[in-house]
Design a protein that fits this description.
This protein is α/β, with parallel strands linked by helices. It is built from 15 helices and 17 strands.
């Protein structure tokens, strides 16, 4: 099969295929293979939807067994064995050990739908329309979540005003000089500030699409206290950085806070299947029956995969593995920076890392490095302001040998592109 059929018939809205211009056919573990049999090491992981890798045997066998037994496939929000097993596993393996008490809302199968549901319940419970979000945040492409997304390119696609959201400074770059919490406290306390009191604050503890920006633990604790002081709900968007990506199962665990509402999608299904849920404190569960609805708010195979994914997380000690692999990534990337250009900035934790090229001032350098990585057999994408951050998002289950293989490809690709940029030597790049 050639790519002509896609160019001729598929919408121009397609995106990732432009960076990875081949036709993929199969995948296993940390590798994805195209129709010509070429294998690519995957540092993309379905944009965070494949934390457990491609087609993990443990989850696959659970899905096959369910299909072989003619398990029900479409049940809307009816009671099913598959849903019951997922809820039981999530409660017993994840929530109860962390002393977290949440109702589980099964919403539409995309992350943006989970955000929409979280915003709606916050507005319903608090009786206020406004939301505080953060500069650099990304929360989805439907109108409510898009209103909370900072990226202007994405916002322009709406073609309509995106009201009732005020953007606060996130502790990054020039904004680090601003005491965001004090600023928010000031505008919330001042009746002349011009800000409508919000129903909730929506935050990513690590801005992934925003450039792998990690919020300080103390800042997150202060944000929790601020919400309590002003009667605001704290919504944590854990869609991309939850399910073990940052180390703990939830990204906010490191700060010791408890959100009022959590949105989860992507890897919550364990297998890359469409699924999204909202966790909300019981006292906030003020929905009327069917008030937030959708045909596919109960994807049965995703329930099976989700329960199996949680079993994998707990039984295989993935948190400890992620912590070990995180050190390998950090050390390797630090060595690359020291060798090529100390101005490069490294950010991340767990198995989400970003290498920021923006300080170099060569706007197409990161694109050339990514293209070179692809040529050498590595899938990796960019993120951040103006796309200047190389974003590492490998499966949590990747072996250390595979992880090092990918890091070596990054190093070699950067060397070639930096050498071309400098025109002389690596040392020239460092001292220019």
């Amino acid at each position: 099969m050639g790519t002509e059929i896609f160019h001729q018939y598929e919408s121009e809205v397609r995106s990732y295929c432009r960076a990875f211009p081949t036709i993929f056919k199969r995948a296993k573990g940390s590798f994805i293979e195209d129709e010509d049999g070429r294998r690519y090491l995957d540092f993309f992981a379905g944009a965070g939807a494949l934390n457990y890798g491609h087609n993990p045997d443990f989850i696959r066998e659970k899905l096959i067994d369910y299909l072989r037994d003619d398990g029900i496939m479409q049940a809307l929000d009816m009671f099913t064995v598959a849903k019951g097993e997922f809820i039981k596993t999530l409660q017993e393996k994840i929530l109860l050990p962390r002393k977290l008490d949440y109702r589980i809302q099964c919403c539409g199968p995309t992350g943006t739908n989970a955000v929409e549901a979280a915003l709606k319940i916050a507005r319903k419970v608090k009786g206020r329309a406004a939301i505080f979000a953060f500069q650099g945040g990304f929360h989805g492409m439907s109108l409510g979540s898009l209103a909370c997304t900072g990226n202007q390119y994405n916002r322009m696609s709406a073609g309509t005003p995106l009201p009732n959201v005020n953007f606060m400074p996130y502790p990054f770059g020039a904004m680090e000089k601003i005491d965001t919490i004090a600023y928010m406290d000031s505008v919330l306390s001042d009746p002349n500030s011009g800000f409508d009191k919000p129903a909730a604050v929506l935050v990513e503890t690590v801005q992934a699409e925003g450039g792998i920006v990690v919020a300080p633990e103390e800042w997150l604790k202060q944000l929790r206290a601020l919400c309590d002081k002003h009667d605001l709900l704290l919504i944590v968007d854990d869609i991309q950085v939850g399910c073990g990506r940052t180390g703990g199962f939830f990204s906010f665990e490191r700060a010791g806070i408890v959100p009022d509402v959590i949105t989860l999608s992507k890897s919550i299904s364990g297998y890359g299947l469409p699924m999204a849920i909202v966790l909300l404190k019981p006292e906030l569960d003020k929905w009327l029956p069917g008030e937030h609805s959708g045909t596919f708010r109960g994807h049965q195979l995703a329930f099976i995969g989700g329960a199996a994914g949680i079993e994998m997380w707990t039984s295989q000690g993935l948190q400890q593995q992620v912590e070990q692999k995180s050190l390998l990534v950090e050390n390797s990337l630090s060595n690359i920076i020291e060798e090529l250009d100390p101005r490069l900035q490294l950010r991340g934790l767990g198995l989400i890392w970003g290498l920021d090229f923006s300080v170099i001032g060569n706007s197409d350098l990161v694109e050339r490095v990514l293209a070179k990585c692809f040529d050498k057999g590595l899938l990796i994408e960019n993120a951040g302001r103006k796309g200047q951050v190389m974003k590492l998002l490998p499966p949590l289950t990747i072996s250390e040998n595979e992880l090092q293989q990918g890091l070596d490809i990054i190093r070699d690709s950067m060397k070639e592109c930096f050498l071309r940029t400098a025109g002389q030597s690596y040392k020239h790049v460092v001292t220019r």
